[in-house]
Specification:
With 190 residues, the protein is mainly alpha-helical. The protein contains nine helices and no strands. The longest helix has 26 residues, at 146-171. The chain is elongated, with a radius of gyration of 20 Å. The model has no long low-confidence stretch (mean pLDDT 93).
Length: 190
């Protein structure tokens, strides 16, 4: 629903008896600023009580989370590079935005101790992270022209490697340097 002031509203309607117990499974997928602003009607108080845990910020475990993100960055960058090699520039451009960038921003947030917007890592990026991180992110975006997509894919991978090395050093992880070198070589040939 769109309100007169162009605010978007999203409403979910379920029967209270069967839906309230399912709310606990939303932890980690949904974050609410407060139950009072999210719940419009609750005659018994059960719904408000059930959503209360969704207000608690998500605090990822740094080491295992960084390790997973390092792997995801290699995986999604390689896929994006393969799409680019096939000449699908718009799809490669979209791959950077929807598959690579969220993982980069999560790793950057983890490294800077700024995980308040973990579920939507681009949210409040300019306010939450230092200017050099925002600038680095900006350099990984561009238009869909073939040369610009090639440039941004390479720039994105360079940043991913830097983030991965920093995370590996901080949390005692082993970054897959041989794989990273092979991906770099592959992207350099595109």
């Amino acid at each position: 629903m769109v309100f007169d002031d162009l605010m978007r509203g999203e409403f979910h309607v379920e029967t209270a008896g069967s839906a309230i117990p399912q709310i606990a499974s939303w932890k980690g997928m949904i974050h609410l600023s407060s139950p009072e602003t999210a719940v419009l009607l609750d005659r018994t108080g059960r719904l408000t009580q059930a959503v209360r845990p969704l207000v608690e910020p998500i605090v990822p475990d740094p080491g295992p989370t960084a390790e997973r993100l390092i792997g995801e960055l290699a995986n999604w960058t390689l896929m994006t590079g393969q799409v680019l090699a096939r000449g699908e520039y718009a799809r490669a451009h979209a791959g950077l935005a929807v598959m690579v960038a969220p993982h980069q921003l999560k790793l950057a947030r983890l490294l800077h101790g700024s995980t308040d917007h973990w579920l939507t890592p681009s949210r409040a990026l300019e306010a939450d992270l230092p200017g050099d991180v925002v600038e680095r992110y900006r350099r990984t975006t561009g238009d869909t022209s073939p040369e610009e997509v090639r440039r941004t894919v390479r720039e994105s991978w360079t940043w991913s490697r830097e983030l991965s090395r920093e995370a590996a050093a901080r949390w005692g992880l082993s970054a897959p340097e041989e794989l990273h070198e092979r991906i770099t070589g592959f992207l350099d040939r595109l």
